[in-house]
Write a structure and sequence with these properties.
Rossmann fold; 8-stranded mixed β-sheet; 4-stranded mixed β-sheet; 12 strands; 42% helix
Length: 300
């Protein structure tokens, strides 16, 4: 007799139909994974259904429209195995009640907001669920909302993850790694130490930029003179903090980052302000509100 082993097909729920969430869902769908994309906007759901799906213009996947399942909170009635949060950091806490509703006792929840400490905040808010630390790099952008078209411009997509609390079944973690690799992402399952180092490097490359933009009310093109000096001082302060926390940051990391930043400043798409500054200007909640929560909790 032959023994047939059936591999469980994980049910993925991607919350947030912005550029990153849509890209994520399209990648998973392209590999035949069971994925549903959740949007809070009825027009996106209706437009996607009318157009026959979501169109992704991708450096990795090419140009194609994907007829993926796309729903709103009201129409999603299933229980997800893996919930991927692709929403703005300040929106994460407000999504907690819905996450509880569509979860079972072994549901895995992760946020790819590239924020340091987000897994900690999720664990505090969802103590009964399994929390996965993760981040994603893909350079995703809106292209055409009416036609539900998105851009993914990086030559590769990178997904890193780690089981911060060592509670997730190893076979399930391996299945996630296989699924995301099948979907065309450069996927790495890391130790918590490795992940913390990568996440902190991302913190260094983002937070000083945001803070400098907010303080001077400038965009990337304007980082010269005193403004550039302020930016570098903040970067160095985070490097000192990393050493105090015993987090290893790659040698010459800042020198490489400064060189890349100078190249970025010259690009046409560098005339952008920080996302937090944009939120503050229209008087809506920003990542600062969420970061305050993280800092206070970690300080305790």
């Amino acid at each position: 007799m032959f023994k047939i082993l059936f591999k469980k097909k994980l049910k993925y729920l991607v919350i947030g139909a912005g550029s990153t969430g849509a890209t994520f869902a399209c990648f998973l769908h392209s590999a035949g994974k069971d994925v549903t994309l959740l949007s809070k906007y009825d027009d996106i759901v209706n437009n996607a259904k009318e157009k026959g799906g979501i169109k992704l213009i991708s450096s990795v996947k090419g140009k194609k429209r994907y007829n993926i399942k796309i729903k709103t909170e009201k129409t999603y009635k299933e229980k997800a195995d893996v919930i991927i949060l692709c929403i703005r950091t300040p929106d994460i806490l407000s999504a907690i009640p819905f996450i509880k509703k569509v979860s079972h006792k072994k549901t895995i929840v992760t946020s790819i907001a590239n924020g340091f400490g987000i897994a900690y905040a999720l664990k505090k808010a969802l103590p009964k669920l399994l929390i996965l630390d993760s981040n994603f790099v893909g350079k995703c952008r809106w292209y055409n909302r009416k036609d539900v078209e998105y851009l993914q411009q990086r030559e590769y997509c990178e997904f890193n993850f780690a089981d911060k609390y060592n509670l997730i079944d190893k076979k399930t973690l391996k299945q996630i790694e296989i699924d995301f690799t099948d979907a065309g992402m450069n996927t790495t399952m890391m130790s918590e130490k490795q992940f913390t180092e990568v996440a902190f490097e991302r913190l260094i490359t983002r937070s000083p930029f945001e803070a400098t933009c907010i303080y001077y009310d400038i965009c990337a093109h304007d980082f010269i003179g005193e403004k550039l000096d302020t930016f570098k001082i903040l970067c160095n302060e985070l490097l000192i903090l990393a050493k105090a926390m015993n987090i290893n940051v790659r040698e010459n990391f800042l020198e490489e980052y400064y060189q890349n930043f100078e190249l970025y400043k010259e690009r046409d798409d560098a005339n952008v302000y920080s996302s937090i500054l944009n939120d503050m200007k229209i008087e809506q909640c920003s990542e600062i509100d969420f970061l305050f929560f993280i800092v206070v909790e970690l300080a305790k």
